[in-house]
Amino acid sequence: MIRIELKSEKNRFSPGDTLEGEAVWDFPATPKLIAISLEWETQGKGDTNGEVCIEQSWAPQSPSGREAFRWTLPEGPISLSGKLFSVHWIMRIWSVNPDQEAEMKIVISHLTTPVINRRVDSLLVPIAFGATKSS
Q1: Is 118 inside any structural domain?
Q2: Which of 36, 46, 103, 133 could bridge 93 with an S-S bond, Cβ 3.0-4.6 Å?
């Protein structure tokens, strides 16, 4: 078993906030490597994109344990949810031999409510060509 535990009960953070938590593992044998990362990725129409912003790895000394992390969150991109495309932040943790992984989604935004990309119908009224304005 492998998982991420955050010190905060929330999963919404502002850019530049401190993210603290622990990587937790419990296996029958000592894994060769454990790594944890923070990355963003796009989803939607067209090409996907993403980047690993923070990564921390270590060779554990026992089959079970905890390793603390404390990261300063990047300034962007901010989380966005839409029909055309979305930007998601994901924390991933994985082990090597045994091979296991888990992930946790978080929101990084300076806004208090989620940014949702929606279609907005135009409020413009079409004008017929050749029409004249009456006084």
Answers
A1: no
A2: 36
Q: How far is CA 72 from CA 13, 63, 119, in A?
A: 11, 29, 34
Range of the domain at 36: 2-110
**Which residues sit opposite 56 in a β-bridge?**
36
Q: Strands 18-26 and 116-117, how do they pair?
A: unpaired
Domain count, the chain: 1
Q: Strand pairing partners for 89?
A: 40, 106
pTM of the full structure: 0.80
27 within domain boundaries: yes
